[in-house]
Amino acid sequence: MIRLAISIGDPAGIGPEVVLKALADPAVAALRPVLVGSRSILSRTYAQLQPRSSQPIADPAKLRILDIPIDPLLERSIHWGVENAAAGAASFTWLDAALAATAAGRFAGVVTAPISKAAWHSAGHAFPGQTEVCAERAGVDRFGMAFVGRSPQTGWKLCALLATTHIPLHQVPVVLTAELLDRKLDLLVTMLDRDLGITHPTIAIAGLNPHSGEGGQLGTEERDWLIPWLAQARNRYPNATLRGPIPPDTMWVTAGQAWFGPTLPAGLPDAYLALYHDQGLIPVKLMAFDRAVNTTIGLPFVRTSPDHGTAFDIAGQGIANPASMIEAIHWAIELTETRNQWRDRVVAAAHRE
Ligand SMILES: NC(=O)C1=CN([C@@H]2O[C@H](COP(=O)(O)OP(=O)(O)OC[C@H]3O[C@@H](n4cnc5c(N)ncnc54)[C@H](O)[C@@H]3O)[C@@H](O)[C@H]2O)C=CC1
Ligand SMILES: NCC(=O)COP(=O)(O)O
Question: 280 CB less than 6 Å from ligand 2?
Fold first, then answer.
């Protein structure tokens, strides 16, 4: 059985709730994952939400928990919907413990419930997000934030990688370079092969400007370096079909048709490379807010997370939807299995040589 750790996220948000609701799903419970967090916080979540929850919620007394208590004085300052340093310190400690146990070989992968970046900063942890902590603790400097999802209507798999992530919009054209895109495309091609079993992918690559610059009239990045970079990338990846730079507003039209069905349009790409956070995540969340899963690629282990955040506005009400957390757990299993099969194939091929 594949062993998974689940860090329970910010205790003032919906993380503990969606984790306990996910564990009420028999298919998730059968995986017997280990929750990394405070037993006391989980018990409190269960006691308060079970009577008013819209959905079944698992009793933490029956679950496997790596208990990391919060100092009782600090625990008293944790309240639903209140973003503060105590909650940020706790969620950071739990993530770190899950990663340390994974690095020690106890788990094959980590599923992380949502944290608040602002709460982390208040607690003195100056990371942009969980992605960067995973990468640093794993000792890798080439990693990416990808989103995957399986359409409940058509079964089509959505896969999108963000070339840049948590930076201000005005920095995007500065940070985006041919070298950065080389690294991101490399990660994406590897992920498609190793994690999704796609050896000859078609990848849609967005332009940066409206209409991909309209020949330089609406921006020059495409003309100056993006189109030349794509020509070189096509030579480097003869097994891949690289389409682009595609006008960003229309790039997702067939993805939407494939997601909602009833039929799949012809010529669908296997994956999308978006150049900045909202260029990728607005369409992904519009299509698949309750299904999409954030996965960090480039790590030596699998890491997934729901696509949503801490939802402080509804924390403590019992109405949070666990669907994306459930998907994050199933994707962690699926990605680990495909990766293991890939490794077996590589080893078998090496023995044949
Ligand atoms: N994986 C992670 O750790 C993520 C963390 N975040 C963090 O979460 C915090 C809040 O971010 P926001 O932009 O407000 O996004 P959010 O996803 O927390 O909330 C956006 C809206 O969606 C609703 N919502 C979110 N998840 C829901 C669920 N499972 N069921 C029902 N409704 C749900 C919320 O109530 C809110 O109205 C930020 O600090 C952000 O950095 C955001 C995305 C992912
Ligand atoms: N918008 C995606 C997001 O915020 C995920 O951040 P991370 O904590 O998984 O790095």
Answer: no
- Whether pLDDT at 351 is above 90: no
From residue 175, alpha-carbon distances to 180, 183, 225, 346, 349 in Å are 8, 13, 13, 35, 39
Band (pLDDT 50/70/90 cuts) for residue 249 is: very high
Query: Is 305 close to ligand 1, i.e. is its CB under 6 Å away?
Result: yes
More confident residue, 353 or 147: 147
Q: Which of 116, 310, 331 to mutate to test the pocket of ligand 1 (most atoms within 8 A of CB)?
A: 310
Q: How far apart are the C-alpha atoms of 30 and 274, rounded to whole Å?
A: 36
The residues near 159 (Cβ < 8 Å, ≥ 6 apart) are 146, 147, 148, 191, 192, 196, 270, 271, 272
Q: Is the CB of 101 under 6 A from ligand 1?
A: no
DSSP-H helix ranges across 237-322: 253-260, 277-288
Mean pLDDT of all residues belonging to the chain: 96
Nearest CA, atom 5, ligand 2: 129
Identify the three-state secondary structure at position 199.
coil
Q: Tokens standing for 267? A: 């010529």
DSSP 30-90: TT-PEEEE-HHHHHHHHHHHTTT-SS----GGGSEEEE-PPPHHHHTT--TT---HHHHHH
**CA–CA separation, 19 and 9 (whole Å):** 9
CA distance 147 to 157: 10
**Ligand 1 contact via 207 beta carbon (within 6 Å):** no
Helix or strand run (H / E) with residue 222:
none
Average pLDDT over residues 92-105: 97
How many other CB atoms sit within 10 Å of the CB of residue 270? 18
Is pLDDT at 34 greater than 90 in this prediction? yes
ipTM over 0.95: yes
pTM for the full model? 0.96
